[in-house]
Amino acid sequence: MKKIKINQLRAFVAVADEGGYRQAAARLKVTQPAISQAINTLEASLQKQLFVSKQAKFQLTPHGEKLLVRARAFLTHHDELFAFMFQTEVARLDMIAVATQPSIAQQLLPEIIQSFMQTYPLAKINVRDTTIYHVNQLVADNKVDFAICTTHDADESFEITPICRDQYGVVAQQNHVIFQREKLTWKDLRQFSIIQNSTWDPADVTQFNALDKLAQMRVSNMNSLVTLLETGQSVTILPRLAFPERNANLRFVPLENPAKFRQIGLVKRPDTVLNESAQNLYQFILQNYR
Questions:
Q1: Is the pLDDT of residue 66 over 90?
Q2: What is the C-alpha to C-alpha distance for residues 6 and 2, in angstroms, rounded to an integer?
Q3: Where is the HTH lysR-type domain (predicted)?
């Protein structure tokens, strides 16, 4: 069987509905010879007669009646599918999809978006707030235009552009004895109960790895970590952006000797071509927050 084309099925359905080539041609806005050729080619491909002419009208043969049901269903499905694909693509072009981590979504991103929207008030932004593992996955699968995230865990194959640094510090209950010191160093932490958390940099073999051995507990959930710190017994280390600023019960003091930072940057696949809206946000961040 030869390949059947969409325009042949459209011509067939139009002739069946209208009862003639001239009417079908007017409906499809094509010439009458084009309709005639489409029907002849379709019948030749199927090796079946689809119409008989009776009293200046074309009527379906039994084979034509069977084909009509399936042709209608196929064309309906075809048109709905293409309409959906078009709408999805239009929505994708209009929407800026960004992945990020919770601490960046809560502290840094609101300021970026607010400033950006003043310049581009009609912009639409979809923010995916998740763990760094899933941020990497979203970028790899091309589910987002780019990510704003910590760079030390980003896949080496990604295009990484640093924008700012986020300093680590001690976080504990407001009146914790550790804050009696004027300055805090990494050595000062060794005499306190330490809670490890998911923001620690596993690539740092000096400071963080040394504290890993002293940590009595590891907590990944930020709400659980805050609750434990509020008891006043333990301390942890967080980057500044991860510190819950609105919590009056906790305090953040930067660590010194040495000061440690996590790098935050823009991360995307090197083969990703940003749409105009996403490119505007990408460049806006580079120009204003780098």
A1: yes
A2: 13
A3: 4-61
**Helix pair angle (276-289, 109-119), 10° resolution:** 120
Q: What is the pLDDT of residue 49?
A: 93
- Averaged pLDDT for residues 13-29: 91
What architecture is domain 167-260? 3-Layer(aba) Sandwich (3.40)
pLDDT tens, residue by residue, 167-199: 999 999 999 999 998 889 888 888 888 998 888
Q: Is it true that domain 6-92 has CATH number 1.10.150.320?
A: no
Region of 222 (left: φ > 0; alpha: ψ -120 to 50; beta: rest) is alpha
**Is the pLDDT reported for residue 114 higher than 70?**
yes
> 94-163+264-289 maps to which CATH number?
3.40.190.10
Mean pLDDT of 56-77: 90
- Asked whether this chain's domains 94-163+264-289 and 167-260 adopt the same fold, the reply is yes
Place of tokens 């069977």: 66
